[in-house]
Fold:
Amino acid sequence: MKRLLVALAILVVSLQSYAWTQRQPFPVQNCQVHAPYGFPQAQGVVPLCQQAYLVGYDAAAKLPRFVTYELLPQNALGCVARTNAFVANQFVPNGAVPGDYAATGYDKGHMAPDGDLSWDVQVEFESFLMTNMSPQAGSLNRGIWKLLETSVRGWAVQRNQSYWVVAGGVYNAQDKQIGKGVVVPHAFYKIVVNNQTGEVAGWMFPHVAPYPNLGNDLTKFRMPISQIEQQAGVMYALPQGIKELQPGQEWTVDFGKLTNAKRAKCGASSSD
Structure:
């Protein structure tokens, strides 16, 4: 029994060591899977290719201008437990650090959400790199932003289709800063493309003090892709013949069934 306990302890330490090892970003061409229609174009960004997502990082603002990735249905219900292991990206000099957010009232808001990347230990860890974070009020990050993140996973699982996702903040020189120069965006956007049907939908959420609760009606925040591009300062490569959905035409999701599917796969205590 004692030997078994020692072996388990060694295994746990090994897994933790693996999970906490930062890897140098991959060559950007390795991230073509996360930008299947072409890389988004924006001025002043440095591409950072992680295993499960691509970042267009703005070193001046210490933010991702955009983060893009492909969500496969088989990866949308991962069982790796959330670590909250926020950490500076050691391969980005003078980048944001967790301490920049201390006592500011802002959450470290994921652009590629942990819930989409919990299918692998190392990938889950990399979801907490600060190069994937932007300052978000809790009312947004834990409110309608989280609702949209969960909805995307539901669409992938319940339709058994893959989605290309891109998200980021909208900011300028007049926006406030926290810590050592981390800009607080005045809006956040997300664009979702169904890779099988070519359907696309975009959302823009205001992020202005006093940061009211935005409710749970996603249709109120739909925005044409061309307007998102204009406001965000990013040009997105989209598939030929895209069908931009009108507000109210979004894909549906059964959240109860999604939660049950997660618990059936990962255990009774799991939740999406």
